[in-house]
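Quick one: structure for this chain?
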Amino acid sequence: MVQKKIAIIASAFGFISDKICYLTEPIMLSKKCQYALHALLYLAEHDQEDVVTIHEIADTKGIPKKFLEVILLDLKQAGILASRKGKMGGYYLRKEPQEVNILEVIRLIDGAVAMLPCVSLNFYESCGRCEDEKTCRINKVFSTVRDETLRILSGATLADLIPPKKAPKKKRTAATR
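Got it. Here's what it folds into:
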């Protein structure tokens, strides 16, 4: 299925050749990464002083509790979250939402951002499917996709995911009635 999608992309760019790379894995964020972003967004929507329990996040966001524990621990070890122990314990953002970079979170949880291992900057591996990566047209297109993805994600923060708060209603005065 994925190979068919890549072949369609390749044909759209005029890249049909016997020297093209094929993806063998789906191109998407892992469930773990999706859950991490949802949990971070939930925490970001609370005051930074608010401590939120794993149970509350799991129930509100529909994330399996045991899986969420692992995710939050990873985020804590990376310095994005902090926790408070005890009966009133839980997790809270250690950083301001505008300081939590989406690219940093994705790399922490999923590793590579590139769609092909042969175009990854940090997790490079030869795809083993083309004779020469320098002349592989799929490599060229997906290098551009990688660059644009990195450009967009490196400029995106958790604050960008928070919906704008509704402005409080103004009280009516005698002059505005």
